[in-house]
Write a structure and sequence with these properties.
homodimer, alpha/beta, six-stranded mixed sheet, 36% helix, globular, disordered C terminus
Chain lengths: 293, 293
């Protein structure tokens, strides 16, 4: 890791703040670039500035001016609406490549953005490289454990999520007593959990032994360095409202935002929190990045 | 087709009524068996009776007493909650087979139910065999046609639906400008369209050329004779509320409930209605059923 400041490109949610705090705790300087539309009052505690998608030249120059060459993408990024009349010279040059990637799914868009940064001399770092404590571990993560019926639901939900991942869609699936009640789309995991919560109870049945599980796993080939599946306190709150028995993630390739609070909430609400072992095991990307500079 | 009455096992929705009317128009007698929980005030115009899942013996005997040997399953069936203490002798004998199938997905459950009826000497007929006018034809079905961008969304939605079908989940998918906004789960197509309608407009973007499409296709190997994907006036109303450009179904393996009204609504609301050609073409099951005497 560099002695130079680390650049954090901050999207929505708590992850960028968690990464920035983690850096400060280790005495590591950061420069935080706030994406348009992101509420980030916390950023005033750090060296930070707002960025526009249309002025990539300004972004690159600012990072370089602060001797930042390691870049972390952290937090949810909403697909931007571009205003081409505001493009600076750098963005104009990159526009054909960037715009072409937008219609090709999230993975491809992120991959192209990563390439653009790499071509500029930056190295993309995963949030979990900067803050390894965020990475989910395997097995039971809180007080409660999944029962046999929950494990069967986890297996079924994983099978559906994998089928979806193959067509670059969704990361999260809800299954209860073998029946699929929710599949994540663009609206995200929390919106999907609210949809499940609104389901007619008559349709769900009244199983007390298989109340349902949320499984959230990466897509095959997902750009884990820039976009790792994440759960946090909100996930637990919404899973509880949806009447689920618990939440399962893939160990080593999922982020547990605010682990302490997330686990405490799961314990309190009676939900299990479970880290699955990938089969075959996933190599968490840590040291395979092209190092430049 | 038999001169004897046709047995209609009536689930929810307009399909059983449409099938019964179609029979009457042709001078074909029917006996309608109403599933528990189904609102079917229309059934008073036909020879009809209510059935309980727990008394299959009564069901079989009643059909046989009316010399009904051709059975049509029509309308949505909610997964039943059984009361084993009410089982008659016949149901008790069939319970192991039936209950085992319930955990194995809709297709397998329907297949087992079909087998049970066949073993009893009945022949399962598709609603489209009794009322061929219900079958969707190919190409543009109303006044409006999908544009190039809509066709790209149809292709993407079909790809996602096929990936899901492979794991026996969902039949309907919404895609707008390449982005997946909705995937059908147990709650059904209309619930999914309401979820899409509730999507934050900022997330959807403001594309006027690719407003989004609903694609509804059968799962690979779906039991089309007992459960064919269907759309009707409600589908069009909910698709319009969700801001979509149109609806695409698979020709020859989808039912168009109340075709006249469905097409008129699509025309009025500016939505296209499109019948895709299956590739490879689907053989609509019509005359392949085992005929028993």
């Amino acid at each position: 890791m560099a002695d130079k400041p680390i650049a954090i490109i901050a999207g929505a949610g708590s992850l960028p703040h968690l990464v920035a705090k983690n850096c400060r705790d280790k005495g590591q300087a950061v420069v935080v670039a706030i994406l348009p539309g992101v509420e980030a009052s916390w950023c005033r505690d750090f060296v930070s500035f707002s960025i526009e998608f249309e002025r990539l030249g300004v972004l690159f120059d600012t990072f370089k001016g602060h001797h930042c060459y390691d870049v972390v993408f952290a937090g949810a990024i909403t697909r931007p609406r571009f205003h081409p009349e505001k493009f600076d010279k750098k963005t104009l040059a990159l526009a054909p490549k960037l715009l072409a990637s937008l219609g090709q799914g999230d993975d491809q868009t992120l991959r192209v953005i990563g390439e653009i940064f790499t071509d500029e001399g930056f190295t993309i770092r995963g949030a979990h490289e900067i803050a390894p404590d965020l990475l989910a571990t395997s097995g039971r993560l809180g007080r409660h454990a999944p029962c046999k019926e929950d494990m069967a639901d986890i297996e079924r939900a994983t099978e559906i999520a994998q089928a979806l991942g193959a067509v670059d869609t969704g990361q999260a699936v809800v299954v209860a007593a073998g029946l699929c009640l929710g599949i994540e789309t663009l609206q995200g995991t929390d919106a999907m959990l609210r949809f499940v919560a609104d389901t007619d109870p008559a349709l769900r049945g009244k199983s007390n032994i298989a109340k349902g599980v949320l499984v959230k796993i990466p897509k095959p080939g997902q750009e884990l360095r820039m976009d790792m599946p994440a759960i946090g306190p909100d996930t637990i709150i919404n899973a509880a409202k949806a009447g689920l028995a618990g939440v399962a993630v893939m160990a080593k390739s999922s982020l547990l935002l605010d682990r302490k609070k997330t686990v405490a909430l799961a314990d309190e609400k009676g939900l299990f929190l479970f880290g699955m072992q990938a089969d075959p095991p996933i190599d968490t990307p840590t040291d395979t990045a092209t190092t430049k500079g």
